[in-house]
């Protein structure tokens, strides 16, 4: 409520020398009409940071935002620059920003209403950003905010996962799921994961104790008395999940906002909230080798629409990245 939209960027016909490139939409639309355009350069406000974008990652939310399906929750202002997950190098900071300085390597999640990651420069509120730990690739950092943040908040903040829990994760081979497997295992849980057969080796490699091919097997026949189900699919998958959860257990969904308790089983919707401190801790787990970032394909900014199309297939394994500019040497 009361959120300010920062300096909307205006499309320009004759790009000046210092214009920035950004993947934009001009109305709720199809991804095929997202276009790489020249925009007025972004200038940071007092609490903001100007990043040279090194990498961004794509999320299914980007597709939902483009289509207008999320307009009640995330109304967009046009022209809208796509992308919420960003990593880059600070070029300038606003007057009130004390924590960061030019040259710092940062990553974070941008407000979906504002977007802006799929561009060569991005202006981000400083409190949404965290330092990229030394040695961590900026592309891997850009993969974290939405996917790993959601997996963490679903399993820890909502489901309170702990040692001995049996956790079923639907769509475990996707962006959120590949982090969710590992986060549940780090908490000491037993993990059952669903994906198509081609991804089973990946899921086991990430620590899944059992894997189910959702195309061939009925998970309701394979799993009983789960403590936690993490639903990343919705619809029939969500509905059929109630029956495999023990009384007192919980079904957490990333899809159905209206989910409530069902008898003795709790139901909850996870809505990712941007939390820079959490993202910093997650990045440190990656650096410590405790959490792996699975990447599917990397695209250039010029190919960013292809990256959106790949995520739209619904069958990526891990994260799809857009690498925008080189990472500074020595980081
Ligand atoms: N509420 C929130 O705050 C929030 C936050 C993050 C994400 N989300 C939502 O959560 C969903 C998942 O996000 P994501 O980033 O993980 O998506 P994603 O990376 O696009 O997920 C792709 C994966 O889904 C799997 N899959 C597709 N259909 C399946 C099925 N019927 N059963 C099991 N697996 C299936 C695919 O596996 P195969 O290739 O093996 O088929 C693929 O690996 C999206 O709808 C996203 O918008 C919501």
Output the keywords.
331 residues; alpha/beta; Quinone Oxidoreductase, Chain A, domain 1; 2 domains; seven-stranded mixed sheet; six-stranded parallel sheet; 9 helices; 23% helix; disordered N terminus; binds NADP nicotinamide-adenine-dinucleotide phosphate
Write a structural description.
The strands form 3 sheets. Strands 3, 5, 6, 7, 8, 15 and 16 form a 7-stranded mixed sheet that branches. Helices cover 23% and strands 27% of the residues. The chain is α/β, with parallel strands linked by helices and 331 residues long. Helix 3 (145-158) packs across helix 4. The chain has 9 helices and 16 strands. Helix 7 (235-241) links the parallel strand 12 (226-231) and strand 13 (245-253). It binds NADP nicotinamide-adenine-dinucleotide phosphate. NADP nicotinamide-adenine-dinucleotide phosphate is lined by residues 59-61, 146-147, 150, 170-171, 173-177, 194-196, 199, 214, 232-233, 237, 254-255, 270-272, 311, 314-317.
């Amino acid at each position: 409520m009361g959120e300010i939209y920062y300096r909307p960027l205006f499309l320009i016909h004759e790009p000046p020398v210092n214009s920035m490139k950004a993947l934009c939409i001009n109305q709720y639309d199809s991804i095929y009409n997202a276009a790489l355009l020249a925009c007025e350069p972004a200038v940071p406000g007092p609490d903001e940071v100007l990043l040279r974008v090194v990498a961004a990652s794509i999320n299914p939310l980007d597709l939902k935002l483009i289509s207008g399906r999320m307009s009640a929750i995330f109304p967009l202002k046009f022209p809208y620059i796509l992308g919420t997950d960003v990593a880059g190098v600070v070029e300038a900071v606003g007057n009130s920003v004390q924590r960061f300085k030019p040259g710092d390597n940062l990553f974070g999640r941008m407000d979906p209403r504002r977007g802006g990651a799929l561009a060569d420069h991005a202006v981000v509120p400083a409190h949404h950003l965290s330092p990229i730990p030394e040695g961590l690739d900026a592309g891997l950092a850009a993969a974290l905010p939405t996917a790993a943040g959601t997996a963490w908040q679903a399993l820890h903040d909502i489901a309170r996962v702990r040692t001995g829990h049996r956790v079923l994760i639907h769509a475990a081979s996707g962006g959120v799921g590949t982090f969710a497997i590992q986060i549940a295992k780090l908490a000491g849980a037993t993990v059952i994961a669903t994906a198509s057969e081609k991804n089973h080796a990946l899921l086991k490699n990430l620590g899944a104790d059992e894997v189910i091919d959702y195309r061939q097997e009925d998970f309701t026949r394979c799993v009983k008395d789960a403590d936690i189900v993490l639903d990343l699919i919705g619809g029939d998958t969500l509905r059929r999940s109630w029956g495999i959860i023990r009384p007192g257990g919980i079904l957490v969904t990333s899809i159905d906002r209206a989910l409530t308790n069902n008898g003795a089983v709790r139901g909850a919707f996870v809505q990712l909230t941007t939390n820079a401190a959490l993202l910093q801790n997650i990045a440190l787990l990656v650096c410590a080798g405790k959490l792996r970032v699975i990447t599917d394909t990397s695209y250039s900014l010029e190919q960013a629409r292809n990256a959106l199309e790949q995520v739209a297939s619904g069958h990526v394994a891990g994260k799809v990245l857009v690498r925008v500019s080189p990472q500074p040497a020595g980081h």
